[in-house]
Amino acid sequence: MKPKYDFLVIGSGLAGLTYALKVAKFGSVALISKAKLEESNTYYAQGGIAAVTYQPDSYQKHVEDTHIAGDGLCNPEVVEMVIKEAPERIKELIDWGAEFDKGPDGHYDLAKEGGHSEKRILHHKDNTGFEIQRALIEQVKKCESIDILDYYFALDLITQHHLGFHVVKDKTDIECYGIYALNRRTKDIITILSKTVFLATGGIGNVYHTTTNPSIATGDGIAMVYRAMGMIENMEFVQFHPTSLYNLQERPSFLITEAIRGFGAILLTQDGNEFMHKYDQRGCLAPRDVVARAIDNELKIRGEEFVYLKCTHLDAEELKSHFPNIYAKCLELGIEITKDYIPVVPAAHYACGGVKVNLDGQTSIKNLYAAGEVSCTGLHGANRLASNSLLEAVVYSHKAAMHSISMFKKIEFCKGVPDWNDEGTSLPEEMILITQELKELQQIMTNYVGIVRSNLRLKRALDRLEIIYKETESLYEQSTVSQNLCELRNSINVAYCIIKMAKSRRESRGLHYNIDYPEKYILY
Length: 524
Ligand code: FAD
Ligand code: SIN
Fold this sequence. Notes:
Elements: E1 4-10, H1 14-23, E2 29-33, H2 41-44, E3 49-50, H3 59-70, H4 76-95, E4 121-122, H5 128-142, E5 146-150, E6 152-158, E7 178-183, E8 189-199, H6 220-227, E9 232-233, E10 238-245, H7 259-262, E11 266-268, H8 276-279, H9 288-302, E12 307-310, H10 316-322, H11 324-332, E13 342-351, E14 354-356, E15 368-370, E16 375-376, H12 388-407, H13 431-448, E17 452-453, H14 455-478, H15 483-504, E18 513-514
The protein binds flavin-adenine dinucleotide and succinic acid.
Succinic acid is lined by residues 46-47, 257-259, 350, 386-387, 389.
């Protein structure tokens, strides 16, 4: 018997947990996650969640800041909707038990980050994501209608293709009936049928060599939708966080939150000079694309591997109390941040593009919803404003939940879905083949499709990717299914989307900077 649910949720970050909690009152829910529930980008979020709380801030200012960062590509209707929904959705997080720091006057202690014209980031110390996820996981575990399937890896969406209909004339006719998932403990592949599927698989950071994202961020959701012929957009806009801790031994790279610059920290070149004002009058608090490019430029001009973040002029006690985890982490490495400068480099951090969704979180595939980092809602345009992504995840999970609750009773389970076809796959996993291809992929993406691109670099990236793609597909066709191989395959699909979309964008805009179209940004 194939397990059947009203709602199937893939992913246990902020998006998946929020959606699961909302739909659980209405029907049966499966919440699947490829690792332990906590392992997600959400867990590592430091700075916080952006929302308009007090005057002199206003919705209008947050809307304007979002548009400026997005460099003209944000969808105005989406921006307006998300920013106005924020207070209600955050109140819900608080009701579920998430705590945000308050000042001595009892008001929320709001932080500032790059691109924000006001202090508006609600946070919990420097580990906001951990705190929110802790509260939501506690709630989910109390919910009887939610079956938690941790260590289940979603392999593919089930669509007409699996029923033997290879040609879907109109792409809007594609329907999702459930998923195939690998039980990592038993190695069995199960078929889960569901009336609705909610994709909340997060980001893509591991497509790059240096990233702030944990190892789960391999773009699985985007790749599954791509293979199912659903709509993907804006993949060229990959956000590099300007300040990850420079420590070659460590993967993922430890983030040094932008809130620390909002608190007064300053970027310096290794010879101790400030440089951000050469690039933007907003200095160290310019939007992320600007700061990351400026750092990249300084490193290339100087042939150096990191710049410094200076906090030594800030109040030592306040610094330690606002950023206890960063303080402790740096200290472990012998960097006492109240006395020493912190070496930092940009790292791949966030995918602004993804699975295209409408205002209700519906994808182009029927009965498939998406929210959080896997999705592309139109909020971020060409560059995400800091701390707008937790906000987007919580608002769109709500929207998608409301819509799927209104729909699921009208949907029938699909009949005649075959089990996973593993014909001809007998080769055991050979890790060296997988790890080597992955390293090559990450090098190609970092060197040719990183912060600064060119037409030649993009062409070269595509040519090299083609070789890796063919080798990996051939390996996949012959091998017993494994998570590592599937993640590699997914990362290749995602890299392909990034390169193709970067090649098609014949301009420099937001996070996509191509030296062959320098009219807008002149750095060199
Ligand atoms: P995630 O939280 O990444 O969750 C994805 C889930 O999907 C995981 O449970 C994963 O195991 C599961 N999954 C993935 N693939 C599969 C599969 N094939 N099968 C089964 N399960 C799967 N944003 C802000 O707004 N403010 C911040 O301060 C902030 N700080 C950040 C700091 C760091 C270091 C990082 C990495 C990101 C930060 N971000 C921040 C971005 C933000 O954290 C993420 O965009 C957001 O948490 C994404 O939530 P999500 O639920 O979409 O995905
Ligand atoms: C940070 O804390 O700097 C990350 C915030 C974000 O990614 O929005």
